[in-house]
Design goal:
heterodimer, A: mainly alpha, 1 helix, disordered C terminus, B: alpha/beta, Rossmann fold, 2 domains, 5-stranded parallel β-sheet, 15 helices, 5 strands
Chain lengths: ~45, ~375
């Protein structure tokens, strides 16, 4: 039980940080590349 | 610890908390693996084939997102090497809003000619000639096609600077050698291409990633709508005033930028002339007959029509103006150029279908006669 609790803790930390890292990476790339959705209406 | 050697909840919780909060090499490894795997999955699975399928709708941000749907259709066309004719409708939102029933166009053409073309309404918000060229380039060269180009005055008002914007922040989810060539011709720096679809279109996908995550989570891909102005409401007077006040500037922009846009259009027509199976048509999008800016809007429109007639003759491309035949009225519009009456949209579509059918029939006759 102790073993599984430790393993679960490591995975929770790893996955949380991993997803946060991925989102931060995407956010950084999006901002630096200036990517944005064009939503304006045409003439 | 409990009496029988089985750990109690408090102990298990403290071990879990310790492992979850204390930095460890194992957790760091997982943290680095997660983004790497996700990124790798994007590289491997986000392909033109995926975007040509209905899965593309997961990247859509909703009814107003013309370009995800357009990308998907354009890529699907590029993969389809059948000899079934296609009708590709290009142009801006004024053209998009005018057409309402694709199936009825197919039926009319079938009824008149025996052909059953697939209709794609690929008109989109503020579409540029560069984007039109990129879409046309996706059509296999030997596939019979009628390309209807909605040519409102705004198409010729585009500043040449828009090309740089499209290179930096493309709206289409595919790279086009035509746009790259146009950029090089304009002296712009074209980013190097990697031949990996996801990497080459990163801006397109990054801008849609939050929407993608939401759509995947809710399992509710968003649908683009074609007739967005189809509501009972009309544009507020403030919008008319704003429009009226901008006519002079729009007219000047049109005069200044006409030649540069015309040169892009002439290159599109030049490429099409090498494709005997495909023909282009100019369509004048509907115009609200309301008098705006003391007749200046009308003068702008007449100038534009005269120029379109010249281009039509110079390049031997039919020019279709349907407004008078439909009997378009002020009440049929949301604003200056967007139809929002379903009955009028339907009549417009039917008349367009008749013209397309006649064009297919004449092409067929020419081929039979030659």
């Amino acid at each position: 039980m102790i073993h599984w609790a430790k393993l679960l803790g490591i995975w929770v930390q790893g996955l949380t940080l991993g997803f946060l890292l991925f989102i931060a990476l995407i956010e950084l790339l999006t901002r630096t590349s200036g990517a944005q959705l064009f939503r304006y209406q045409g003439f | 610890m409990s009496i029988e050697g089985k750990p109690d909840f408090a102990t298990v919780w403290s071990v879990f908390k310790g492992a979850a909060l204390k930095p460890s090499t194992a957790a760091l490894t997982i943290a680095l693996l997660v983004p790497s795997i996700l990124f790798g999955l994007c590289l491997a699975f986000i392909t033109p084939g995926l975007m040509a399928s209905s899965t593309a709708a997961y990247f859509s941000s909703g009814a107003w997102d013309d370009y995800t749907d357009l990308t998907s259709h354009a890529l699907a066309i590029s993969f389809d090497h059948s000899d079934q004719p296609v009708v590709i409708i290009l142009g801006a939102s004024d053209t998009r809003e005018s057409i309402t029933n694709h199936a009825a166009i197919t039926e009319i053409v079938h009824d008149r000619t025996g052909l059953r073309p697939v209709i794609y309404n690929l008109a989109s918000s503020d579409q540029t000639f560069w984007e039109m060229a990129a879409i046309i380039d996706q059509i296999p060269a030997d596939r019979p096609a009628v390309i209807v180009m909605g040519l409102g005055a705004g198409r010729f008002s585009m500043s040449p600077g828009r090309l740089a914007e499209l290179i930096d922040n493309p709206r289409l989810g595919f790279r086009s050698t035509i746009i790259d060539d146009e950029a090089q011709r304009a002296g712009l720096v074209v980013p190097s291409r990697t031949d990996n679809y996801f990497l080459d279109n990163t801006e397109f996908f990054l801008s849609r990633l939050p929407q993608f995550m939401e759509n995947v989570t809710t399992q509710h891909p968003r649908k683009r709508r074609y007739n967005l102005y189809l509501t009972s409401s009309k544009a507020p007077e403030s919008r008319w005033q704003e429009f009226s006040g901008s006519i002079q500037a729009r007219f000047e922009k049109y005069q200044v930028n006409f030649d540069s846009n015309m040169s892009v259009l002439s290159r599109i027509l030049g490429r099409l002339s090498d494709r005997p199976e495909q023909s282009a048509v100019f369509l004048v999008p509907p115009k609200n007959p309301r008098d705006v800016a003391n007749g200046l809007w009308d003068e702008f429109y007449r100038t534009h029509l005269a120029r379109l007639e010249e281009i039509s003759q110079d390049y031997d491309v039919p020019l279709w103006m349907l407004d008078d035949e439909i009997g378009i009225k002020e009440a049929d519009f949301y604003d200056a150029s967007h139809l929002n009456d379903n009955d009028v949209q339907y009549r417009y579509t039917m008349l367009l279908a008749e013209r397309i059918a006649a064009l297919f029939a004449s092409t067929d006759q020419r081929e039979t006669g030659s």
